[in-house]
Amino acid sequence: MALSTSAEGVSADRRARSVGVGRAHAKAVLLGEHAVVYGAPALAVPVPQLTVTASVHSPRHGGDGPGEVSFTMTGSPSRPMVAQATDGLRRLIGEFTATMGLADSPRLEVTIDGGIPHGRGLGSSAACARAVVHALAELYDREVTERETFDLVQTAENLAHGRSSGVDARAVGALAPLLFQRGEVQELSIGCYDVLVLADSGVVGRTKDAVELLREGFQRHTGAQERFVDRAAGLTEQARLALADGRPEDLGARLTDYHDLLRAAGLSTNAIDTLVEAALTAGSLGAKITGGGLGGCVLALTRREQAAEVTRELHAAGAVRCWTVPLKGPDEHAC
Do 180 and 193 belong together in one domain? Predict the structure, then answer.
């Protein structure tokens, strides 16, 4: 099944442009973190409330010469995070130039207006990269396929995170919840009518550290990797079926089970565990950390009528901000 995307396409009238603009949105992983790198499936949902817009233009005058790229990023990301992001985006721009057969590399000015919190497991780096790809495509009046977009985003993601599974690169352009496995995606069937409450712990996650921590644990204990991946894959498949069949209680239970799996691997924190417990106490059907771990956000499956109470309790437990995300299927009807 072809996956729908929400990024803007390239202009149809083929006009020469002085500025290219591209957009992407956040994502959240329901289940499958870490195990997806080892070939297990992952379930992810788009978070269209949080977006990134990239603008790219080539000034006629000034600068240090061809090939120079300058970046302006809104908000207040940390200096190391900006350096990491711009390194990946520079490589992406080089790959775009080569892929599209552009003979010259003019000086570019890139402005990224990001509404996705950095380092929270919400796909901010992938969304920035996707937005830049589509901005470049519009600037140069080139068509980019979804596969080309994915490969270019992965260029930046692999530099930012090490070995990237690719789930973020796909999910930040998806319109509907998706199943991701080994680079392939399909849209998920949705059979329930609940919402996801995302709670920001205020603590920057450390994906690279989490990946290394998990890898070291696998190396110390024979069979640990196989047990982790098998358990993760089983929970993800059970969750996929519950989501399709309209069994929200079962889906919620699998979310909490997956959190317990990540916590046992040392990938949660006291602050995250406190938020998970607060969501469950307030009536959520299930809750877990989402993303790489060691900080970031909590995701809680919640009845619509309980979302406001769950949000209040999450704030009381230390969340710095929350978002409510209705589940939607491929036909975009709320579920």
Answer: no
